[in-house]
Amino acid sequence: MALGTFALFAASAFTPLPYLVPTLERRSAVLKPSAFHTRHVGVRAQEGSEPGFIEKLKVSFRLFQESRAAGYNFKQAVADGIAGEYDVSAVTSAVTKEAASAPVVLFTWESSPACKKALKYLEWANVKPHVVRLDNPWSEGNPKRAALGRLTGRSSVPSIWIGGKYVGGCDDGPSEEAPGLVKLAFDGSLPKKLEAAGVAI
């Protein structure tokens, strides 16, 4: 499991083998990077940033292990690993304030189908949420995502908040108190939550 997870972090960085094992690259022409890798990854190696990347990878794996040891589930541990080292207290405070900064707040990724669906549902209900992009930039969004996961018990997006309270994702959520936008709509409690948050519907 540990080795497979470490490979997951390595693969997520889209780094070709020659840059992870530079000695092999020097000894074998077969391992030379493609033109694509030369453009997008080779520049980092030429600039001498490879050691920094490897160190970040090691830190990510360590944080993943620490998160699992602390009892967090696999997805949260991955989120913690990807987030890297950050000021947990400061980021948690920041996302809590952002979550309460408008009647309806969505933490999203632009390319996420679930996020797009949630935004479309709210548009149909004539609700204009405040959207916090976690992918612009990733360097700020990844720690926020990890902090949100620790706050809510779920690191996936969208993370939907109404009246400063977490209500789940789009289709479901981690608990009866936060079952997700769709379930709130079907059980009839969504209009009440929106009205209590000051949304005119």
TrEMBL record:
Q: Give every Glutaredoxin domain span.
A: 104-167
Q: List where this protein forms a coiled coil.
A: none
Q: Name one GO molecular function term.
A: protein-disulfide reductase activity
> So where does this one cross the membrane?
none
Instruction: Give UniProt keywords alphabetically.
Output: Disulfide bond, Electron transport, Redox-active center, Transport
GO CC annotation: what is one? mitochondrion
Q: Which family does it belong to?
A: Belongs to the glutaredoxin family.
Protein name, UniProt field: Glutaredoxin domain-containing protein
Q: Which organism is it from?
A: Chrysochromulina tobinii
Q: Lineage of this protein's species?
A: Eukaryota, Haptista, Haptophyta, Prymnesiophyceae, Prymnesiales
